[in-house]
Amino acid sequence: MAKTIEEINEKIKQGKAVIATAEEIISIAKEKGSSCAAREVDVVTTGTFGPMCSSGAYFNLGHTKPRIKLGSGKVTLNDVPAYTGYAAADILIGANALPDDDLRNRVHPGEFNYGGGHVIEELVAGKDIHLIASAYGTDCYPRKSLDTLINIKDLNEAVLFNPRNAYQNYNVAVNASDKTIYTYMGILKPRLTNANYCSAGQLSPLLNDPYFKTIGIGTRIFLGGGVGYVAWNGTQHNPSVPRSDNGIPKRSGGTLAVIGDLKQMNNRWLRGISMLGYGATLAVGVGVPIPILDEEILGYTLASDADILAPVIDYSSTFPQREADVLAEVSYAELKSGNFKLNGKNVATASLSSYSRAVEIATTLKEWLQKGKFLLTQPVVPLPGVDAGIVSKVLNERS
Question: Where are the chain's structural domains?
Answer without folding.
Answer: 56-160
